[in-house]
Every structure is written in C-alpha cells, then in structure tokens.
Amino acid sequence: MTDQERQALLTLAIMAAMADGREDESERAALQRVAEQVSLAGDAGASTLYDDVVQKRVTLDQATAALVSPDAKTLAHELCVGVCHADGALSDAERTFLYALDTRLGFDPQQAAAAKDFTEKAEALATAPLAATSAAEPAPEPAARPGAMTPEEQDRVILNYAILNGALELLPESLATMAIIPLQMKLVYRIGKAYGYELDRGHIKDLLATAGLGMTSQYVERIGSGLVGHLFGRGLLGGLLGGLAGQAVSSGMSFASTYALGRLAQRYYSGGRVFSAQVLKDTYEGLLNEAKGLHGQYLPAIREKARTINLSEVLQDVRA
To answer: Contact 204/158 with Cβ under 8 angstroms?
Structure first.
C-alpha cells in the first residue's frame, strides 16, 4: 500500500465520520489523534488531513482517485461502511455519502455485489437486538430471577466479553471488528438488567459518550492503529485493519475498553445511576488504565479464543 493510498484511506475515514453532521468533541479529538499517530509513524502529510477535510481543501473525488489497487478500493468501502455504522443505523446523509463513495470507486459488477453484501451485513450488526445472546458469549445467567447475576457471575461475564472482543480484533475480517461495538452494548445491557434496568440503545449510546467512549471515535482509532501497522512495514492481511502491529494494538484496545466499560456499568447501575458526567468519565479512565495492565495476563486466552472462534456463527448469532 502506497503512502498516497494510506493518506486517502485516512481522509475517507474522516469524511465518513463527519458525514452525519453530528461530530462531537470526543470524535474530533479521536480523529486528530489518529492523524497525529499516522504522522508520527512516518507519514508526514497525515497530520494535516483532518484540517484539510474540515476546511474542505480535499474532495471525495481527490481521495478516491488516489486509490489504485482493487484491494485498496475494497478496503476503503469496508472502512467507511464501518465508520458510518459504528453508532447504529445509517442516517440519510451517511447513505448519500456511501453511495457517492461507491460511485467514485468504480466497482465492477462482482465487486459491487460483494460491497452490497458487506453493507447489508454491517447494517444488520449495527442494529442487532440487545437482548439476543451470541453462542460465543458466556452462558446465560441462572433463571431463578430473570436477568439476575451475582457479582462473581458479572465478573466472569465482563472478562469473557473482553477476551472475546480482543480475539475478534485479531481476526482479519472487517466484520469481526464491526461486531465489537454491538457486543459492548450487549454487555452494558446485561449488567444493567442484572440491577433491574431495561436499557434501550439510546441510553447505552449516551452512557458511552458521557464516559468518553464514543462509538465512532472508538472505531476510527482502531483504523488508525491499523494504518500505523502498515507504516511499520507489515503486510496487508485483509479486512479493515490489516497490519500485524495494528492488530496487536487494536486487540489490546478492544480488550481494555470492553473490560473497563463492563466495570463502569457495574458501578453505575449498582449505585442507582447517580454518577455525574464527570464522575462517569473519571471512573472510566481509571478503569481503562487498570484494564490495560491486565491485557498481558489474558493475552494467551485472547489468542486461543481467536484461534478457535467461528466468526460466521458469532456474526449470525449477534445479528439474530
């Protein structure tokens, strides 16, 4: 992958994140961090990409024209579909953006069919019902009191979700990465239900955003890790992120953010949802640092999970 193609992919990711017109502070900060990370890794022009998009100094035509190989074009489609679906179902503005992107990518009939199939699967993941449980997830809690879990059972569920999401990030398929946010939302749903709360998607999205874990920004930062991996000379393995270095970093991010989010949900719902926005954010940051320290301890389990997991079954169950 050339430097021009890497810059074009990052440019398109930023455009996709801004397509809905609802960019918030955490999202802006994430986009800027990604540009800085790629720039520090060796792509001197990347640091200006965010400003170029914001100031409309670069167009969709210019970004897509830099993508030469079929693989890079497919990657651009999957990347932008993932960004647009990160926070749920597509808005009309996001659909318009993706249509304009695919038109300019110039897919042949076979590529267009594959792109359409990917988009449909991505949308099914983004709108997956919260109450459904994947076969790859921990076994359902005892039925004596529906939804109830002891603290020990909650600990097991949180750790298993974190290991599962860390493992999904090690897989080369784009849809594996896309399953992580729906699974995080399911984790919050299950913890909330254990304390008597029936949560909807909007509430969980607000909780994540208040804690500083924006869904779109989280997804874009994984993309940045993958692009940094490419800049260090790792080969493209396929899927959304590719490079070995990027996958390793992203796996740690996914494990830690999922673990910290589960612990945050425990404290928040067991305490009656009385945390202020600042307390939520500070608590999550502290838990995230703790979770990062645990990643090495559970890395063998994450790798074993990645080796044995059946991605098709996981995706089918999550979308059920």
So the answer is: no
pLDDT band (50, 70, 90) for residue 229: low
Q: Is the pLDDT of residue 240 over 80?
A: no
Q: What percent of the chain has pLDDT over 90?
A: 34
Cβ proximity of 102 and 114 under 8 Å: no
At 35, list the tokens.
Answer: 């540009």
Report the distance separating Cα 47 and Cα 24, nearest Å. 20
Would you state the pLDDT for residue 233? Answer: 39
Yes or no: say if 60 and 100 are a contact pair by the CB < 8 Å rule. yes
φ, ψ for residue 155, nearest 5 deg: -60, -45
Instruction: Please report the domains of the chain, with CATH numbers, ordered by start residue.
Output: 3-125 (1.10.3680), 131-319 (no CATH)
Q: How far apart are CA 78 and CA 241, in angstroms?
A: 10
Task: Supply 152's token pair.
Answer: 């020990």
Residue 215 to residues 33, 181, 201, 280, Cα–Cα distance (Å): 15, 7, 12, 16
Contact 148, 142 (CB under 8 A): yes
3-class DSSP assignment, residue 53: helix
**Average pLDDT estimate for 171-195:** 88
Q: Which amino acid is at 167?
A: A
CB-based burial label for 303 (10 Å; 0-12, 13-18, 19+): middle
Q: What are phi and psi of 73, to 5 degrees?
A: -70, -40
